[in-house]
Amino acid sequence: MPLPLSDRAHRFPASPIRKLYPLAEGARSRGVQVYHLNIGQPDLETPAPFLEVLHKFDRANVAYSPSQGEKVYLDALVEYYRQIGFQLETSQVQVTVGGSEAILFTFLAIASHGDEVLIPEPFYTNYQTLAMVAGLQVVPITTRPENNYRLPAAAEIEKRITNRTRAIMVCNPSNPTGTVLTRQELDLLAGLARERGLFLISDEVYREFVYGEGEAISALSLKGLEDRVVVVDSISKRYSACGARIGCMVSRNAEVMDCALRLAQARLSAPTLGQLGAAAMRDMGTRYFDATVEEYRKRRNIVHEELSSIPGVLTHLPVGAFYTMARLPVADAEDFARWLLTDFSLDGHTVMFARFYATAGLGNDEIRIAYVLKESDLRGAMACLRKGLERYRELKG
Amino acid sequence: MPLPLSDRAHRFPASPIRKLYPLAEGARSRGVQVYHLNIGQPDLETPAPFLEVLHKFDRANVAYSPSQGEKVYLDALVEYYRQIGFQLETSQVQVTVGGSEAILFTFLAIASHGDEVLIPEPFYTNYQTLAMVAGLQVVPITTRPENNYRLPAAAEIEKRITNRTRAIMVCNPSNPTGTVLTRQELDLLAGLARERGLFLISDEVYREFVYGEGEAISALSLKGLEDRVVVVDSISKRYSACGARIGCMVSRNAEVMDCALRLAQARLSAPTLGQLGAAAMRDMGTRYFDATVEEYRKRRNIVHEELSSIPGVLTHLPVGAFYTMARLPVADAEDFARWLLTDFSLDGHTVMFARFYATAGLGNDEIRIAYVLKESDLRGAMACLRKGLERYRELKG
Q: Which of A13, A254, A274 sits opposite B271 (nearest CB)?
C-alpha cells in the first residue's frame, strides 16, 4: 500500500477551469473540435515588441534575474503605473511568476495559518487553492445573478468579519462575473478595511478591459489606505502573454514588500525571458489597448446577444474583464459541461466552459464563459451551447 | 502606524545567497568589481538549441502551457530519464517553475502544517523558507567538516524522528557541501524511510556534476521504495539556464503526482518559452555533459588547490555539484563577507560568498563557495579571499 499523503493533499481542489481537459482530449480524439470558453487564454497576438526580444536575444546565458525583478522591467512597471496615475518607488513593486504568485506572496505576508480572507463569490477558483497553500480560510461574500453580482450592503459583509479576518480581496474588473466595482462599493470596502484593521487585496489584472462608461478604479487611489492596499497584477491578459508567467504585486506598505522580497529570494527569480519581453512593451502606449478593448467589446456584445436569446438562460451585461456568468436551465451545470464533451457535437464542434462557486449548493446552474475567441468561433460556440441545451434538456426531460 | 503583518511574515529569512546584494551594489558604485561566488549562477553558455527556439519562435501568442507541462517537454523528460536508466510514465512527471516549486509542491503533498522534515545540515537555505511557506518544520541532521560532511550513523538520524516526521530530504550531489551520497548512505536513508514510514525527497539537480569515481545514485533506483521517493529536478544548472525557471518533480506515487497536478493547476502554467527551449535540448546527448563536467572539474581543482594553500582555511575535496565549503580562520564569516564588500579591494576587485547554516551558533566560520566562474576569475576571487583574510585578521587582531 502506498504511503498515505497529508490530509490537505486530498483537499486541494482540481481547477474547474482545467479539470475537464481529459474529456476535451477525448472529444478531440473522436474528431470533435472544442471551443474553449473555459479558460481566459486570449487568441489575440502577443505584441511584436515582446516577440522581437526573443528573436533578437543575444545573451550567451539565460541567467537568473534579481529576485525583485530585472531592473529594466521594474523601471517599465514604475513607468506604466505613472501613466495610469500612480507615482511609485521601485521598492513598492515586486515582479512575480504570474498574478498567482503575487496572490500567494500577499496571503503569506499579511496572514497567519488559520486566518481568514473575505472574497465576493463567485470568485476565481484558484484563489481558494492558493489560500489553502498559505493555510488561509476563504470566507465567501455571496453575490447573486438577480442582483447583477453587486456587493451586498456593508452589514452583510461586516457580519462575516471575525477576529481571524485579515483581508478583503476583490477582483476588479471581475473574473468571473465581468462586473466593475463602483466608487461606492470601493469606498464601502475601504471603510471596512480602515475601521476593522483589514488589508484590501485588489486583483486588477483586467484593469484595461472595461466596456461601459468610465474606468476601473484602482485600489491604489484610495486615500488614507496606503498601508493596507496590495494590488495583484499581471501581463498575461493585458498583453495576451499568459505563458510568459509575469505578474507583479504592488503595495506602499514597506513591510509587505520586504516580506514579498524575502519570499521571492526563496524562489530566486521570475522568468527572465518573460521579464525582458514585458519590459519591451513599455513604449507601446495606449493605442494597443484601444484596439484590444474594442475587440473584446465586440465579443462581449456577441456573447451577450446570443446568450440573451437562448430560452431559459439568465445572463447580465458584463462591463469588464472578458468573462460573463450565465444561469442555465439545468440542475447541474457541471454534468451538462461533461455531457457536451462526451456526448454532443454540432457540425463537428462542441463547447467547453467552467463552473465557479466555493459554497456547496450555490450556483450549481451557473457557468462562466470566457469570450476569448474570435467572432466566428464565438458564434459557433454559442450555437453549440444553444443546441446542446436543447438536446440535453430533452434527454434529461 | 502601518497595519501589522502576520507573525510568520517576519520569520521568513532573507536569502543568505542574496541578502548582501545591496553591499555588492555599493562596491560596484565605488568602482570595485565583485567576483560572485555567492550564487550558483554558472557563466557557461546556454546550449544553442535552447536559444534557437527563441530566435525562431513563430507562434502568434505566448500562451499558457497545460498545467502538467508542454507535451513536447514532458516527452523529452521521459526520454531523458530513460537515457539515465529509468522508465517513467508521463503521469509520473510534473513540470515546475524551477526546482523551487517542485520542493514546495512536494512539501504540500506529503506533509501537513506542523509536520517535520529531516535535512542534513548545512543545506540549501531556501529549503527552510519553502518549508515555512508549507508550514513545515525543518529538523537538521548536522554534518561536520571534520567528517567531510558525511551522514552520521543511523541512530543519530533516528533519534530525530518524531510522530510528526514525514520525510527525509537530501540534495545529492549536495549544494552546499559538494558531497555525493554513497550507496551505503542512500541505503541507510532508504531503510529509515521504509521502516519509519517516511518519504525520501531527493534533490538531484546537480546529477551530472560528479568529479570523482562513479556517479550520483538517483533515489529513483531504490528498490521497494517506489511509493515514497520524490525527486526534485531542474534544467537551471544542468543546461546553464537558471532564468528559464524550468524544473520538474518525479514520483511513482500516483497520489503525490495527482496532488502536484492540482497545485500546478492553481498556478495555471510553468513558463512556456522555457519549456520549449528545454524540450529542444532533448537530442543533445551526453557529449555536452562531458565538456561541462570537465570544465567544472578544472574549476573545482583550482578552488581546492587555492583554498588548501590559504593559511588557517580548512576545506575538503568536493566530488559533486559546483560548490565547496570552507572553514575560515575568523569568528564570524558573515561579518567578514560584509567587510569584503564594504572595506576591501585588491586590484579593483573583491569577492562575495554566502554562509549556510540553520542551527544558531553552528558553522559561523564556514562559507559556501560556488565555483561557477571561468579560471581567471576564479583565481582572482581566490586572491581576494587570501589577501582579504590576511587584512581582516590584522584589523580584528
A: A274
pLDDT digits (tens, 9 = 90+) for B274-295: 999 999 999 887 789 999 999 9
Query: Is B374 found in the same domain as B322?
Result: yes
* 288-327 in chain B: CB under 8 A from chain A: none
Q: Is residue A1 part of a domain?
A: no
Residues A294 and A385 in one domain: yes
> What is the full DSSP assignment across B195-221?
HHT-EEEEE-TTTT-B-SSS-PPPGGG
**pLDDT, tens digit, 9 for 90 and up, residues B51-101:** 999 999 999 999 999 999 999 999 999 999 999 999 999 999 999 999 999
Contact B267 A101 (CB under 8 A): yes
Model confidence, pTM: 0.96
pLDDT in tens, B109-147: 999 999 999 999 999 989 999 999 999 999 999 999 889
Domains in chain A, number: 2
Q: Which domain holds residue A158?
A: 48-283
CATH of the domain at B378: 3.90.1150.10
Is residue B1 in some structural domain?
no
Same domain, B41 and B65: no
Q: For A63, which residue in chain B has the nearest alpha carbon?
A: B243
Q: Are residues A264 and A291 in the same domain?
A: no
Listing DSSP states for B97-163 in one string gives SHHHHHHHHHHHHH--TT-EEEEEES--THHHHHHHHTTPEEEEEE--GGGTT----HHHHHTT--T
